[in-house]
Amino acid sequence: MSSARRDLLALVPHASRAVIVVCAVEIGLRVSTLPRVATLLGVPLLLLDAPVDPHVLGPRFLGAADVARYRAARAVSRRWPWGRSGPCLQLALTAGWLLRHRRAGIALGTTARGGRTIAHAWVVVDGYALDQEAAGYVPLTTV
User: Fold this and answer.
1) Per DSSP, what are the bridge partners of residue 128?
2) CB under 8 Å to 62, separation ≥6 — which residues?
3) Which DSSP helix (H) or strand (E) runs through 119?
4) Per residue in 133-143, is it b (16+ CB within 10 Å) or e — as a string?
5) How far apart are CA 54 and CA 72, in angstroms?
6) 4-61: per-residue pLDDT in tens?
């Protein structure tokens, strides 16, 4: 069996869980608040006191099973058709739930682009941001 096929098969059990969690996240964000949804999922909102260090980004420090969980959450979130709140928030909450055994949390941040303020959410595990884009955002210090 090729390594690409093996990698794809490793995602299947995590992807099925990710679909269920994304559904719960979508409903939760429509009927409740972000802090409440995060609390129900067991994924704390983190208030970071400094911008993300671009040298400590990415899931490379995670084990193979945790990387598969993160990749499954990312694959489902990118294909979710009703991402009203944006796929990054769904990804952060879903991946945070799948990685909650690692005490994952989510951080929120903003940046200015073309005169507009853009928001972003990302997963943090052991002080590491799993999203490469996180370095371009200033973390929120209050929610």
Assistant:
1) 125
2) 70, 99, 102, 125, 130
3) strand 116-125
4) ebbebebbeee
5) 23
6) 556 556 677 888 898 899 999 989 999 999 999 999 999 999 888 766 766 666 666 7
> How far is the C-alpha of 86 from the C-alpha of 128, rounded, in Å?
22
Report the SS3 class of residue 111.
strand
Cα gap 29→45, rounded to integer Å: 14
The model's pLDDT over 104-131, given as tens digits with 9 standing for 90+, comes to: 999 999 999 899 999 999 999 888 888 8
- Helix (H) or strand (E) run with residue 87 in it: helix 87-98
Q: CA dihedral in degrees (31, 78, 44, 84; nearest 10)? A: -30
What pTM value is reported for the model? Answer: 0.84
Please name every residue paired with 105 in a beta bridge, in sequence order, or none if there are none: 124
